[in-house]
Specification:
alpha/beta, 5 helices, globular, binds pyroglutamic acid
């Protein structure tokens, strides 16, 4: 299985983003039988789709697993859906805000994740970490990335599966430290292998 795993650059007042720290570590630990490529994505609405797609075209992955941090959540969240809206009063990394702009005028209202999110959530729980299914990836850059990825996969007629996982902010090496988050994502990837199409 070929996996493209993505994380984001820092944004807001943070100087690191745990999503990229986890993505980098997953590329290093190489789950058995999984070829991993990692890409860091910009927190910029109108650039994230192109950067992501450049990597999809270059590596031709079977699965795209996108990670982002959700600063207000305390558990790993497997996103079910991406909606066709950009809305944020919080600036992206190029200083832009959006007030309810569709991502794609010709696109559907939403896309469902094409990853086995329930099995992945259960795998995370079995690694001893709290996890949930989330029914909203928000309307900031993470939702945009997930929507763009699924839209472009559909437009290109690819069989690539894709989905998004929000991780909580890290606090030292405890329950939600980087090592624990990496372990949880690693185990979720093992689950992806079992659900190969
Ligand atoms: N989290 C943001 C964007 C980048 C990230 O890591 C989000 O939830 O939209």
């Amino acid at each position: 299985m070929k996996l493209l795993i993505t994380g984001f650059e820092p944004f807001g007042s943070e100087n690191a983003n745990p999503s990229w720290e986890v993505a980098k570590r997953i590329a290093l630990v190489h789950p058995d039988g999984v070829e991993v490529y990692a890409r860091r994505l910009p927190v910029v609405f109108n650039r994230v789709g192109d950067v992501l797609w450049e990597a999809v075209e270059r590596f031709a992955p079977d699965v795209v697993l996108m990670l982002g941090v959700a600063t207000k959540r305390s558990v790993i969240s497997y996103e079910r859906v991406a909606i066709n809206i950009d809305e944020s009063s919080k600036m992206d990394n190029e200083g832009k805000t959006y007030a309810g702009t569709p991502i794609r005028r010709d696109g559907p209202a939403a896309y469902f994740s094409t990853l086995p999110i329930k099995e992945m959530r259960d795998a995370t729980l079995s690694a001893g970490l709290a996890a949930e299914i989330s029914n909203s990836a928000g309307t900031y850059v993470c939702n945009h990335a997930m929507y763009e990825c699924l839209y472009r996969i559909e437009q290109s007629g690819l069989a690539t599966r894709a989905g998004f996982v929000h991780v909580p902010p890290v606090n030292g090496n405890g329950e939600t430290g980087i090592d624990k988050l990496t372990e949880a994502i690693y185990i979720a990837i093992e689950t992806l292998k079992k659900h190969e199409v």
